[in-house]
């Protein structure tokens, strides 16, 4: 029972990671936002402070992070995700992530069990091999903020809702994001770069959990530099899997 519960929780967290990426697809490509010091009203800043987030915005850090995130069209990496729940339980997962702007994403967990989340057109598929289950959702029905938005879509628009700070840690640049207003998924997120290469994402969630996603063998740049097979972004639903299709509100079996 605990194993099944852990798999369900992990699937939800993986979907949360994807949801912010999907949220970005709903933003107008022409949407404009400016650095925090220029765009946020005193009311917004006071709301963040009222939530215990007494931090200062760094417009230069904001601009530098936008530049780094806008510098690539495609992104691939192996990942290791280390998480500690609010009760101290530790967990390690591993897999690969592929992203191609705009609108294509694949997050594939290989260990300790297999799960694939794929975005395709206006829908997402969460395929869990161990549970023999597929959950299909419309992108427009997925809300919330997760790190995937920072790897795709309109980074400038997204970051305008956060306090952005930067510090040096040896050879690394660490960018810290704290929501101006209360966030239903995370309290603080850090992106760690070595030069222009994304090295890790660290997330503290609102329930007291902590997770660190470390990337290796990173390939990021233009689609000409790193051409991806478009089949990666097509959902392959195995036969005999239970299909929970939330786009039509019914459960079926293939």
TrEMBL record:
Q: Gene3D superfamilies, alphabetically?
A: Lipoprotein localisation LolA/LolB/LppX
Which Pfam families does this UniProt record tie to the protein? LolA
| A GO CC term assigned to this protein in UniProt | outer membrane-bounded periplasmic space
Subcellular location as annotated: Periplasm
**UniProt keyword annotation of Membrane present:** no
**Segment forming the signal sequence:** none
InterPro entries of this UniProt entry? LolA/LolB/LppX, OM_lipoprot_carrier_LolA-like, OM_lipoprot_carrier_LolA_Pbac
> Its principal location?
periplasm
Q: Which UniProt keywords apply?
A: Chaperone, Lipoprotein, Periplasm, Protein transport, Transport
Q: Name one GO biological process term.
A: lipoprotein transport
| SUPFAM superfamilies assigned | Prokaryotic lipoproteins and lipoprotein localization factors
Oligomeric state and interaction partners are given as: Monomer.
Q: Which family does it belong to?
A: Belongs to the LolA family.
Identification of the protein by name: Outer-membrane lipoprotein carrier protein
